[in-house]
User: Fold this.
Amino acid sequence: MFEMLLFAVLLLLITAQMATSASHVHHLPGFEGPLPFHLETGYVGVGESEEVQLFYYFIPSERNPKEDPLMLWITGGPCCSSLSGLLLEIGPIAFAVEEYKAGQVPKLNLRPWAWTKVCSIIFADLPVETGFSYSKTPNPPRGDYELVHHAHQFLRKWLLEHPEYSSNQVYLGADSYSGITVPPIVQEISNGNERGLDPWINIQGYLLGNPLTTRNDIDYKIELAHRMALVSDELYMSWLKNCIDSPNESSCSRVKDYYKKLSSGINVSNILDPKYCDTWVPPKAIEDSWMRRSLVENFHEHLPPLSCESYPYFLINYWVNYEGVSKAVHARKGSVGKWQRCNDENYVKDIPSSFEYHANLSKKGYRSLIYSGDHDLAIPYFTTQEWIRALNYSIIDDWRPWLSKGQVAGYTRTYANQMTFATVKGAGHLAPEYKPEECFVMFSRWISKKPL
Assistant:
């Protein structure tokens, strides 16, 4: 009897350890000296039998982790590792802008405008089989709804293991394709709170950068192209007539084909960037009208020019697969093969639009920040403004510039549903890549509940 009881206790301890495991990372290959900030990595088991093991990187706020908000960050894609957000956008370290030498580990530097200066952030590899996340069973289901349910489970289990953050205000953050999945996650968290699930999550709202919201978002590239003088008035008027006002399938198809020819030399991630900055992306990804280089899972073996914003996207694959990196971040040996930044194989896009979730969350009074780099042709700011207007809330702070260092950094408008829309002047698809200091100013003001 005693032996059986002892076995049951040991089994429970082992299961609990597998459900959530965390390790402190002191050093990273490519970064000189010990990390000057706290970095925790680990796994959280989700699913009925915790067969899905979700990997995360956690960095407490450098200012006041006891009181500053906590944010769960999910990178877009779909199915791109959250390490993208950490290393390429908003985390405290970034790749050094220098020529990469084959066989050497890419160098890392501190990022002066890290969002972790004012907010604790969990960077989670979602969905399963993204980054270092894996399943103990083969061919796990992967799709929008699975991602939503797993993210919800992940956050509650993570908070159970980190009770010191149980009272912190919680936000979700994401960009690009995750504009589809984050609003449903927030709604599921809210519904779970109302059902009395434990632990209660102090959810306050969410922020989204250049978010995909409906599958129709991509149709409005011609609108932005016209505003940016990339297409003629005649083509624009033909698009309005044949694709919007009185749709005619054959005529609309001809308009779109002509538009593709006119824009074939344009970098859709940022119309100001040279096209050759995207030449290292597989042709199929370039052809996918709303896709961008940051959403692609395979890379050509040659580097883009060092001046390109795309350069770090080459480095990240080589850095993670460099000998010793997976061990340094305490990834479980043998759990994944060669690390890929993005892996959308067998992923089901089964949430067609997140608009209804925005509407529901607005009724519940959650805060939101929706921002757009105004030179993004992949998911134009114009289409984001359209669905925000469709929510039909009154404006309480009308269109005005917001400033960084006394200069116009973009324009903003705030609505009665506590939704703030902001443009980031001169930025592309993932705005913090292009305007890191300005985006930090924008984020730090909003997360502190101050006007932009």
Observations:
- Confidence is low (pLDDT under 50) at residues 1-19, 279-300.
- The two ends are 65 Å apart (CA to CA).
- The longest helix spans residues 2-19.
